[in-house]
Input
Amino acid sequence: MTNSKSRPVNVYILMGSIVFQGLSGLLGGIRLVLDPTGESIQIPLSWLAGSPFDDYLIPGLILFFVLGIFPLVVFYGMLKKTTWSWFAALLVGAGLVIWIAVEILIIGYHPQPPLQAIYGALGLIIMVSVLSPPTRRFYKAAK
Output
């Protein structure tokens, strides 16, 4: 059931986006956990003023597990063409869009570096790819 020749281009775009997000989430999360001040990645603590966080430890843990580990588990499910992976991929995209939206609400929009725009767009690409008819047909056939 995992014949890669039958995967539509949309599925490859989706899988690439998911694995990119997973690796980014792992790396960003680890860096924030190891240095909750954010200095090592040039994110000032002042951005957290007025937020529920004193430092980046909790956001780093959320980033590591929710937007790092989870997408990589989803990617594995997509490779195996499991029945749950389509919906889980939709959750990754929605989770990423929500993460960026909440981040902008809490710390504001920061165009330099343009990470919020890039990852917001990535979340939308994931959701559009998941919801595209070729992707839906491919994973519906897994049932």
Observations:
- Residues 8-140 form one domain.
- The mean pLDDT is 93.
- The two ends are 10 Å apart (CA to CA).
- The helical segments are 9-34, 57-79, 85-107, 115-131, 133-140.
